[in-house]
């Protein structure tokens, strides 16, 4: 199995453009009920990930910038550099699994750094772990229901 077989393509992923405002970012997180979203540059390059915590700490660190300012301020004001770095489409399964243990999704880029999509921890569990468990006599569906 390779990364492509686990990939949720960009067209099916909720993401933010790096020129979005803080308010737009918060609204999209809320609308999709996610705790983090990938951020993509207008040229298609992966720019990072922004999380609820980033927004929260941004508000704590800058109490003078209230809700009105969020309509004008960009995501760069709250994004952490280097948080949730992307992996290459050629990443090893070992590295992908290691990253999935620490992040709920892993951004995937092509050789030019263009955002291709994400691999979620949930997809890894469904496609790799549960079939292995099912072959060892424990019903995968029961295990899956216990985990979610």
Summarize the structure.
With 148 residues, the chain is α/β, with parallel strands linked by helices.
Can you describe what's shown?
With 148 residues, the chain is α/β, with parallel strands linked by helices. It has one domain (3-121): CBS-domain (Roll), CATH 3.10.580. The chain has helices spanning 3-6, 22-32, 52-61, 67-70, 93-102, 121-134, 140-147; strands spanning 8-9, 16-17, 36-40, 46-51, 87-88, 105-109, 115-120. Strand 5, helix 5 and strand 6 form a beta-alpha-beta unit. The longest helix is centred in the C-terminal third of the chain and has 14 residues, at 121-134. The protein is globular, with a radius of gyration of 17 Å. It starts with a helix and ends with a helix. The relative contact order is 0.18.
Mean pLDDT: 89
Which topology does CATH recognise? CBS-domain
Main sheet: strands, sense, barrel: 4 strands, mixed
End-to-end CA span: 24 Å
Topology:
Blueprint: H1 3-6, E1 8-9, E2 16-17, H2 22-32, E3 36-40, E4 46-51, H3 52-61, H4 67-70, E5 87-88, H5 93-102, E6 105-109, E7 115-120, H6 121-134, H7 140-147
Parallel strand pairs: 2-3, 5-6
Antiparallel strand pairs: 1-7, 3-4, 6-7
Provide keyphrases for this structure.
single chain, 148 residues, alpha/beta, four-stranded mixed beta sheet, three-stranded mixed beta sheet
């Amino acid at each position: 199995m390779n990364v492509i077989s686990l990939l949720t393509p960009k067209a099916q992923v909720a993401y933010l453009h790096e020129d979005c405002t803080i308010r737009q970012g918060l609204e999209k997180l809320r609308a999709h009920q996610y705790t983090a979203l990938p951020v993509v540059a207008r040229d298609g390059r992966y720019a990072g990930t922004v999380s609820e915590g980033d927004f929260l700490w941004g508000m704590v660190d800058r109490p003078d910038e209230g809700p009105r300012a969020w309509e004008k301020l960009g995501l760069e004001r709250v994004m952490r550099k280097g948080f949730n770095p992307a992996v290459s489409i050629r990443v090893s399964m070992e590295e992908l699994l290691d990253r999935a243990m620490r992040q709920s999704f892993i951004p995937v880029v092509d050789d030019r750094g263009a955002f291709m999509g994400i691999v979620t921890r949930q997809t890894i569990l469904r496609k790799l772990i549960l079939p292995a468990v099912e072959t060892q006599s424990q019903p995968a569906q029961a295990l899956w229901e216990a985990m979610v």
